[in-house]
Amino acid sequence: MFKDFIKVLDNKKHLKVTVVLLDKKDEEPIVNYFPYETNTIFNIRNTDINFALTTKEAKGSVNFFVNKNFGLDLSVEYASPLRTYYQDLMPEPFKVVYRLEEPKITIKLLPDIKMTIEVEKVERVKVIKQDKIRGSLIGGAIGDALGYQIEFQRGIRDKQVTGFLKGQGIISDDTQMTLFTANGLLYAATRNALKLIRINPIDSIYEAYLDWLDTQNNRHDHKGMCWIKYIPDLRIARAPGNTCIDSLCSKNRGTLDEPINNSKGCGGVMRVAPVGLYIKDYKEAGMLGAETGALTHGHPLGIIPCYFLAVLISILTNEDIDLREAVDKTINIYEENFNIHGSKIRNEFLYLINKAIELSEQDMTDIDAIRELGEGWVAEETLAIALYSCLKYSNSYKDAIVCAINHDGDSDSTGS
To answer: Are 124 and 24 in contact (CB under 8 A)?
Structure first.
């Protein structure tokens, strides 16, 4: 039972809960039950924090709501007998600030401990840039592997696939080309940092793609530049896109000014994430993303999504910003700096992006919403489905990935 339960709420900016755990029989502190432990569990999910105290003889709980911009300040006060004789067994007072969707935190307390829980307006925990980069690359690979299991299948149901069907994921050409994009960027950066013969990033990315082409044919025709080319697990053909293969086999480089074809397939946008992760300047990231896509895909709607995604990822990597806010900012940057293909193309692209935003705010099944966006075989649909999934489930990576892959289309590309 709880003898004292004090709840103070001041304009939703400060919440203080003080709980003293007592024996339910005589309402005296539970010193007699020592050394039984009390488990205090803080399970943060979405925007709810659930607090529960349980012992052998007394239990209770209190639930309260915390906005995503709030932190959790925990402090512990000890009864004097326990502090005197068992101080070495007790945790020191501490302070922690949590983001949403943190793993479950379990804190073990001893009986007869007075615990004060304070929720205050604090700065959100900053995720370091290196973690964002790792998260993007690993998270994209997981989404790719989940979606690769059902690519080309029809009749997929909502949330049908939520894990690896055979216990282990297998990446497709999407992750392969993403890694070769990253390797190309790093190769150029390393040469330039060592003051060797300078190479432009787009040139090294193209050379990296020729290395990737060798891995698909199990050949060594191209003088190797990428060290990952020699990793056995990457020297496997995993349903590579015909447009990428044909463009690279032609030995001709597509550019923004001289398109190599009229394809708007998703083989460009699926691989440009490392550009946004690496380039800090948003406009520069967008242009390199567009040039990277244009190496193999020439249609404006095969290139614009590459620009858009590179800008968006660059913003998210370098700023502490909400996803929806980052999307709006990316739209503005696109309109101001890369709206070069005429109003018809612009309107067609932004219609699909805005539709993805609108659908993410509606109460409908994911499979029905994605059906309105397309199947992801072309770049603008791939981007729209990915945006819808991330906006709909912005607080849960797992839910976003499950949403992105479960449809009758290019599941590995929308997942990656």
So the answer is: no
Q: What is the spatial distance between Cα 103 and Cα 396, in angstroms, rounded to a whole number? A: 12
Taking the C-alpha atoms of 261, 263, 266 and 269 in order, what is their torsion angle to the nearest 10 degrees? 50
Tokens of 58: 């007394």
Say how far apart CA 137 and CA 177 lie, in whole Å: 12
∠204-207-212 over CA atoms, to 5°? 125
| Whole-number pLDDT of residue 129 | 86
Angle (deg, nearest 10), helices 366-373 and 379-392: 150
Tell me the per-residue pLDDT of 312-361, one tens digit each, with 9 for 90 and over: 999 999 998 999 999 999 999 999 999 999 999 999 999 999 999 999 99
What digits encode the pLDDT tens for the residues 86-104?
Answer: 233 333 332 222 232 332 3
Quote the DSSP letter at residue 269.
G
Encoded amino acid at 38, one letter: T
Nearest-angstrom CA–CA distance, 217 and 235 = 8
Contact by Cβ (8 Å): 410, 377: yes
End-to-end CA distance of the chain: 50
Distances (CA, A) of 85 to 36, 55, 94, 314: 16, 21, 21, 55
Residue 222, C-beta contacts closer than 8 angstroms, at least 6 positions apart: 207, 210, 211, 213, 214
Both tokens assigned to 199: 């190479």
| Beta-bridge partner residues of 26 | none
Task: Specify which residues 64 forms β-bridges with.
Answer: 49
The strand pairing partners of 75, in sequence order, are 116
Determine the Cα–Cα distance for residues 199 and 204; give it in Å rounded to an integer: 7
Sign of CA dihedral 237, 242, 244, 250: positive
Phi and psi, residue 161, nearest 5°:
-110, 120
Query: Cα torsion at 218, 222, 227, 233 (round to 10°)?
Result: -10
341/295 Cα distance (integer angstroms): 17
How many residues can be counted in the chain?
A: 416
> Could you give the C-alpha distances from 114 to 42, 57, 256, 346, in angstroms and in order?
16, 17, 67, 61
Q: What is the mean pLDDT of residues 55-65?
A: 30
